[in-house]
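Internal ticket #5521
Category: modeling
Description: The requester needs a full-assembly model to guide mutagenesis choices. All entity lines are attached below as received. Residue total reported by intake: 423.
Assigned to: D.W.
Attached entities:
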Amino acid sequence: MLTIKYISDNKELVLAGLAKKGFKNFALVDAALELDATRRNAQAKLDAALAELNQLSKSIGQLMKEGKKEEADVARQRTTEIKESNKELESTMKSAETGLIDILVQIPNLPHASVPQGMRAEDNVVERMGGVIPEMSEEALPHWELAKKYDIIDFELGVKITGAGFPVYKGKGARLQRALIGFFLDNAREAGYLEIQPPYMVNATSGYGTGQLPDKEDQMYHATLDDFYLIPTAEVPVTNIYRDVILNEKDLPIKNTAYSACFRREAGSYGKDVRGLNRLHQFDKVEIVRIDTPEHSYESLKEMVDYVQTLVDKLELPWRILRLCGGDMSFTSAITFDFEVFSAAQKRWLEVSSVSNFESYQANRLKCRYKGESGKPQLCHTLNGSALALPRIVAALLENNQTPEGIRIPKALVPYTGFDMIK
RNA sequence: GGAGAGAUGCUCGAGUGGUUGAUGAGGCACGCCUGGAAAGCGUGUGUACCUCUAAAGGGUACCGCGGGUUCGAAUCCCGCUUUCUCCGCCA
């Protein structure tokens, strides 16, 4: 969340930023500022009262030692009065405090100056493109047909076992999944990322830390008996490693990578675009997470984008990078670059990665700070990106590389699959 | 799941009701010493919020978390979380 200090120092910038993001509830900003004033006022009074209380306590001890019981009793009486009047101050302060946080978590992050204006996907800007879109014959099959033809992914079987959106990968399909995970993790390691294997369930505090809660509560699977959430991305557990942590500036940037299964309810998205692997409730993804100083976070962002580009290049997929417009970015992001690959039989661009700088928005929730030479702890910047999400990569690989003899595996991946064709 | 023992600052480790934000040791930083270093000596070493603000200063809170008792709690009481040991179960 934004800090109340930033909001009160830069109200006009905040309102302009929110407008760019398509956020209309400006009243929340004033409400936050008002609650903050209430809180500060109550705390000032309460602190003064507590100071007097502490003084009285000391004097009572002293008086008792000197045997001046009556004077001590007078002081005791006074403490009772103070404590009585403190009750109201305490409840004022507490309710202002929780009310303020309730409001702040409803205010999204502000977009970076370089984020294009716009509300819809059409307003996103193509940053650059690469790879070659293959010529496809009219008989080219979409990946769900190919999956059936070669018996490598069974969607109906997943329905039987769990439900729609939980496919079963078989044989070379399963091995292709495992190959991609290994390929992505090895590349990340070579690029300097520390591999992490995180829990796939998190508590509510972690969900709040990265901003999934309360904003996207209905997008996560919730194990109510234990109040755990299945992670929608490894970003959640990995970033929460750094919750309530003060890092040393010389240890930055932190570079972590993690494979995890990801679980998303995808409530409300049905129809043609979700066929096959296009949108699943459970899928595999390798994530990269970075934590850096505000001075270096945009360098970090560029490195991450460039790194993801090397992956789609090695996989020989046609790709493009979009700079998302204000209205299309996520709640918590300050800037986001989406990677899309072209899936030649569906003739569609599919999003396979989203690389974002959250600036200090997550860090403020997480209380993730760093300390440099100057001494004072400051909020870090957090960044993350998919590198990469598997299902749509698989969809594009299957569709783009289909031949009459079978499906060709890109050279870079063969050491991981152990086969170069799916026949 | 049952029983018992713990949870204190960067780390270790004192502390069972009264100037204890917290003894001590280690670590770290700075200074002295040195040709340089080590050793030695000295000094310093948390976070958040409020107030004030150029800075300094002052105040409040924090000894796993949340309550309670008391004029006063790291210290007493209750609940929770978590770690360890033993038993049970088990991939």
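Resolution: model delivered.
Comment from assignee: Residues 39-41, 43-44, 46-48, 50-51, 53-54, 56-62, 64-65, 72-73, 75-80, 83, 246, 367, 377 of chain A lie near RNA strand B (CB under 10 Å from a C1').
Ticket closed.
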